[in-house]
Amino acid sequence: MKISRIICAALALSAGGLAHAEIKQAAADGFFLAYSAPLEVTTAKAYADLVQVQKWWNGEHTFSGKAINLSLKPEAGGCFCERWPGGSAEHGRVIMALPGKLLRLDTALGPLQEFALKGVLSFWLREDDYGKARIELEYRVNGSSSSGLDQFAPQVDDVLGAQFSRLVRFIASGDPEDKSKATDAAAGTVRGAATRAAILDEWKKQAEQQMGAKPAPAGKDTTKLPGDTP
Fold first, then answer.
1. Under 8 Å CB-to-CB from 183, ≥6 apart: which residues?
2. What CATH code is assigned to 3-210?
3. pLDDT higher than 60, residue 73
């Protein structure tokens, strides 16, 4: 399957999602993604929900397959980690924590970590002069000029945008699931998993070729954001 077709399939699956999502920059050596959504709760409440990552992150995008194995310590040096009986992983590390205002992590999510890329993930909580609150997510990733990151920005946008949607729903209702899609959730999960697996398999092959490594056999890469069961 051609990479362009994979990208289109992924974007189709995410259609109807966030109204305020954007790939602000995409170049061979880096990309910048941004998302925002209004909140009906205080920034303090939103921050308290944000740090409970195990309650809103999609378990499909973990190494163990279970979001309950995730943890996040919201202080400088704190670990965004996953621990399960078969192993453990550090998905990121907190580099700034301002309760009710900002949480920033040094994190190359999922397959980005394997290719020695640098990523900074920021969650901003803002309130205007009228007391209206918003949550904003920014993700900046940088690598070498041979990384070809402009090709991969849409895939990362698809997965990270879905996680942001779950966070917004969790803050609003305590439930990250999209109830409007409940009728075809099972079919959508199968299609989504297959599409993301194809995306990441193609991604890894291209990245390894660009870096002069031998491509992995097809179907062997199950890594997802931040990771999936090896």
1. none
2. 3.30.530.20
3. yes
